[in-house]
Specification:
three-stranded antiparallel sheet; 71 residues; mainly beta; two-stranded antiparallel sheet
Length: 71
């Protein structure tokens, strides 16, 4: 394993979900702002539905009615 691999940042792509990164993370937004998360693992929104974008708030999850609610 080379030195570059030892210093590489690990990014996890989740199907229909956020990008998971080891924290802390600084994100540069298109409007020039820089936001920071100091969490151990950071979830970055990829669907752009999050109310706290660029952080994921699980808005990507499908909302379905429970079978009991439809009775």
């Amino acid at each position: 394993m080379g030195r570059e691999a030892e210093n590489a940042t690990s990014v996890t792509i989740t199907p229909d979900g956020p990008l998971l990164l080891p924290g802390p993370v600084e994100v540069s937004l298109p409007d020039g702002r820089v936001v920071t998360s100091r969490r151990f693992t950071v979830a970055l929104c990829t669907c752009r539905r999050s109310r706290i974008y660029p952080w994921c708030d699980t808005s990507h999850r499908r909302r379905t009615k429970n079978a009991e609610e439809t009775r």
